[in-house]
Amino acid sequence: MNATSSRAHGPHGTDASEAAAGRIVLLTTSHRVAPGLLSWPAWQALRDADRVLCADGAHPQLPYLREAGIAVDEAAPTAQELVDACAGGRRVVVVATGEGEPHLTDGLARLAGSGRVRMPELELLPASYDLPGARLLDLVQVMDRIRAECPWSSRQTHQGLAKYGIEEAYELVEAIEAGDRDELREELGDVLLQVVFHSRIAEEDADAPFSIDDVAGGIVAKLIHRHPHVFGDETATTPEEVKEHWLRTKAVEKRRTSVTEGVPLGQPGLALAAKLSSRAHTAGLDVPLPQGKGVGYELLAMAARAEAEGVDPEAALRAAARAYRDAIREAESGG
To answer: What's the Cα-to-Cα distance from 152 to each of 102, 147, 168, 256, 311, rounded to whole Å?
Structure first.
């Protein structure tokens, strides 16, 4: 029993072996692709079949197959019945259910292993398959259901969830700095959940609703517009030139009169100082640091120096703080 056949076929796509034992085509589809959008080989297999079977009478593909003139029997045959249906070189297409057809494939494997049955050729034919990012559709569907049925999630607001967005972002940074790949994947998922959750809540706004598709569409348009060196006629050969393109197009979009606009003042102090220094440097402004007294001005100078040296002052301070934490633990253990 082979997943695919490599033998030479005759005028009607058959060979001597298939003519005797027949062929079973297991047709799989993705629920993330609109029903009816099948590959051309799948439509050919369906039209050439002597019989088409589907165990699920509510399968989303059935109305489209029947509309196309494909007769589908709603039946769930055993492996032996399926083999018998292929007798005389007949072709049988099985439209797989969402769970696949483990009872059939396992049963066919047992029959083949017994050596007592002449097995038909078996072909696994993906009729539709997922593109990269398709699992995001599952996340949207799960979020819809949770929003509708979960007593906690159904009551959440943008304001109530705001703190979780901050927490998840910090946990993501921690996973990145720790170099933990499993933790990184999980934390990226948690951040993504916040985006989908807020987007789902936004759909219910009476005055200005928007959906996750609006969010995705907006960022796609923004990325294309701010990368004229990729999608347009401009050129950029260094990261610095890319950054200049980005800031220039961003300023035009938002009609900003100062490079400091759009810098959130609520972010951690070292990050804020470094961001302001970076904006000034990118804009070609030579602005002396304010000469005040106290720790704040000293930290400002250190943040500006770190930015000029290409160092993230927040990350550097966290690394030093972790070293301090380890030293405290060692002292506590009497080391």
So the answer is: 37, 9, 19, 40, 42
Q: Is the pTM of this model over 0.90?
A: no
Provide the percentage of residues in the chain whose pLDDT is more than 70. 94
If one looks up domain 132-212 in CATH, what number appears? 1.10.287.1080
Read off the pLDDT of each residue in 317-322 and give the average, rounded to a whole number: 92
Answer yes or no: are the C-beta atoms of 3 and 120 closer than 8 Å: no
Residue with tokens 């050729």: 121
Domain 132-212 in the same topology as domain 16-126: no
Average pLDDT of 304-308? 92
At 280, list the tokens: 């000034």
Q: What is the rounded average pLDDT of the residues 109-123?
A: 89
Q: Which CATH class is domain 16-126?
A: alpha beta
CB atoms within 10 A of CB 248: 15
Domain locations in the chain as residue ranges = 16-126, 132-212, 267-315
The 10s digit of each residue's pLDDT in 263-285 is: 888 888 999 999 999 989 888 88
Nearest to 74 by CA among 47, 49, 94, 54: 54
Helices (H), the chain: 16-21, 40-48, 62-67, 79-85, 102-114, 135-149, 158-178, 181-202, 212-225, 228-231, 239-254, 269-282, 295-308, 313-332
